[in-house]
User: Fold this.
Amino acid sequence: MILLHLINLATTRLVVTSTTPRLDAELLLTHLLGWSRARLLAERDAPIPPQVAEAFMALVERRASGEPVAYLVGHKEFYGYELLVDRRVLVPRPETELLVEVALAMLGDHTAAWRIADLGSGSGAIAIALGLQLPHAQIEAVDLSPAALEVAAANVERHALSGRVRLVLGDLCAPLAGQYDLIVSNPPYTILAEVEPNVLAHEPHLALEGGGADGADLYRRIFAAAPRYLRAGGSVLCEIGAWQGEIVSALAQAAFPMAEVRLFHDLAGHPRVVRVATAT
Assistant:
């Protein structure tokens, strides 16, 4: 079968269930062929062996059922870095890159030996991005899921960060010790009954649930525990849901009455990151 015809077939199959059907088809085929997308576009008249076409359409059917492309190809780019991902971890979202950007801007000196804790690290996306951008930082990546930490360990090794990113099994702040310059977290903040069905069907529930009736239960726990682990002038950064700016800001201000609490908005204009900056 000709490559372009195969892509068109897959796009037609995916158009009902995906907002990016052609891109999904191209990513799945480049994965199977080991090609770049540029080569795929340049060689659209190339014949595809029957066994490859069969394997490709099997992946297309899985994508049509709602399975994330990242799970099908086994990796996802985050902040310019490729991460290994599978069903043990939530797929890193582009909105979370804002948290990394705010952290880097706030810390300022990228040569300092910052001490950072990443709570609910999952695949290690935030910890790894910060570790690669801050070459002298020491980072503890905490997660409640041993399976998620297995994926994070593979990503830490992949990016040669074993000496500076330490993986810790535990619940939020519970395993922390000493004082930190920065505590970051992208905790589960969804109301599970409202999670998009395909996400609920394929991504780990432990990374989605725990927010409680208003999605803010884990922020309450983080803000209650964090003060004892922050150095003077230290900060907490949390990703939030687009509807949570007011409630999470209020929780942060109550827990840190003398701190500056600020919201940062994503490209769509939604509140996405809460920053708590304590006094020096």
In short: The mean pLDDT is 92. Residues 50-64 form the longest helix (15 residues).
